[in-house]
Amino acid sequence: MSSSFAPQRAVLDNGLTVIHQHNPVSPAVIASLSVVAGAILEPVEHGGLATLTAAASRRGTASRSKGDIGEILDFRGAHLGCSASRHGASVVAKMRGVDAADLIELMADCARNPSFPSEELEKLRGNRLTALREDLDDPDVMAARGFREILYPNGHPYAAAVRGTLETVESIEIDHLRAFHEAHYAPSAALLIVVGAVNWEETLALAQRHFGTWQGGDRGGYRAAHDEIPDVPVGAPVERRVDMPDKAQISLLMGHSGIRRADPRFYAAALMNSVLGRFAMGGRLGRVVREEQGMAYYTYSDFGAGLGAGPFTVRAGVQPQHMEAAITSIREQVEAVRTSGVRETELNDARAAAIGSLPRTLESNEGMAGLLHQIELFDLGWDYPARYAEIMGEVDLAAANAAARELLHPEALSLSVAGPMQPPTP
Prior knowledge:
- This protein is α+β, with helices and mostly antiparallel strands.
- The chain has two domains: 8-211, 2-Layer Sandwich (Cytochrome Bc1 Complex, Chain A, domain 1), CATH 3.30.830; 239-419, Cytochrome Bc1 Complex, Chain A, domain 1 (2-Layer Sandwich), CATH 3.30.830.10.
- It has helices at residues 49-56, 66-76, 100-112, 118-135, 139-151, 166-170, 174-184, 200-211, 266-277, 279-292, 323-340, 344-361, 365-377, 384-393, 397-407; strands at residues 8-11, 17-22, 28-35, 79-84, 89-96, 190-196, 239-243, 250-257, 298-303, 311-318, 414-419.
- Strands 1-2-6-3-5-4 form a six-stranded mixed sheet, with helices on both faces. It has a five-stranded mixed sheet with strand order 7-11-8-10-9.
- Helix 9 (266-277) crosses helix 15 (397-407).
């Protein structure tokens, strides 16, 4: 672990959490404001509202037009992005250290005072509708959408599409954006992370100056403001196949319910999964299904463990004539890991790769900021990087294979495929 990793943290009187990490080797700064204002908080009938609200916050504020914001960024060679995901919204600025004061002030203005010009909503809506129509012609998107729909019941926070649908996006009006912003953008549900060429005193002063007067309902703090996500039990497998005859290959997803990040088996599952479908050229799945059998262009597996129990998934891109054989082979590899376990040498390689990845994360401002967000969100402790090798070292062969037996269910793998269901005619 880098000896310079020494984050500092404070909570302002209004509940905003501020975390700072000085990076002495970088002339740049990244500042990230995360707010608990994601898609799981929007009404079902207005799917896409969270992402449109976030995007529109960069299109003008009470004191600045979109053009004004663009001029500030162009003059300084800086970047400012506003986006939202399933759980939260974010405003991220990347700039030179000498411009940190101006850009953090601009970040605060966009987050706190968006004006939501109606003409900008129409532009964003048009772009979103175009993208959603393009999705209907994308096998990757259609397979992922089908998988989500068969895995999660209606009304579950993970069931809906983050960007909404053609119908829901059409229904969103300016008043919906304003109401969503007023209801969910609050300092006690926000986290400001600043990493780079500024010191702690400057960061704290800027946070107080530009965010200290921000008011909003008491959400209990960034970590507490997130809603509890209900688990979905592993159930009987379901299949969904979408025929897209004009496409060249099939996108395939197989999987079932998984675990959340807080599960004590998380690290064992991560290393076990690395052996199955992540390490080197894709673990056993990549070596067997892709390299040895030639059944897939790519294939890998993942545990989507987060605030809620994300799914265990296997993804693959296959030719139509290889689809059924690839599905069978994937099931066989999952079953082999579940019943026979991983080998000591495989686990050692996966562990070494995981431990070796952390120093690379700490080499960049972006990597540090992302790690700090994870530490705060999941309450991992500031010594997490120092303990990481020990944590990985504690995952022995018995723990990894117990995770495989308990968390892999090849008989329950649901299937979602999209692409040409029939091979092309010779």
